[in-house]
Specification:
This protein is mainly alpha-helical and about 110 residues long. It is built from three helices and four strands, in the order H-E-E-E-E-H-H. The strands form two sheets. Strands 1-2 form a two-stranded antiparallel ribbon. It has a two-stranded antiparallel ribbon with strand order 3-4. The longest helix is centred in the C-terminal third of the chain and has 23 residues.
Length: about 110
């Protein structure tokens, strides 16, 4: 991911000015946790984790995952198709056991 993105985590509760930065990025809206946004070099929001059904959080469901990879596809500049496919495979390996737990009858 380092080819195209710099990951910055902002703890809105514990970091000095974290809440102010969070409010600027979300325009004061409550988005839930985690929430993410991809910015350009000037700090302009290109796409956020607000999918069709709301914040995708940590994407696990097929719909959340589709939105997350749409975010990456839309904003990548140097990441090759095969590298994006590898990220997708690694993500699917991570998400599969979680999906299975979510799909189990209770």
């Amino acid at each position: 991911m380092a080819k195209d993105w710099i990951v910055v985590e902002i703890d809105t509760d514990r970091m000095k000015n974290g809440a102010a930065v969070g409010n600027r990025l979300t325009r004061g809206e409550s988005k839930g946790y985690p929430w993410s946004v991809i910015l350009d070099a000037q700090g302009k929001a290109l796409i956020g984790s607000d999918g069709p059904d709301g914040n995708i959080g940590c994407p696990v469901t097929p719909e959340e995952t589709a939105h997350f990879f749409a975010m990456l596809t839309k904003t990548r500049q140097r990441l090759a198709d095969d590298e994006l496919a590898l990220l997708r495979k690694e993500h699917d390996d991570f998400a599969k056991p979680i999906r299975e737990r979510l799909d189990r009858p209770r």
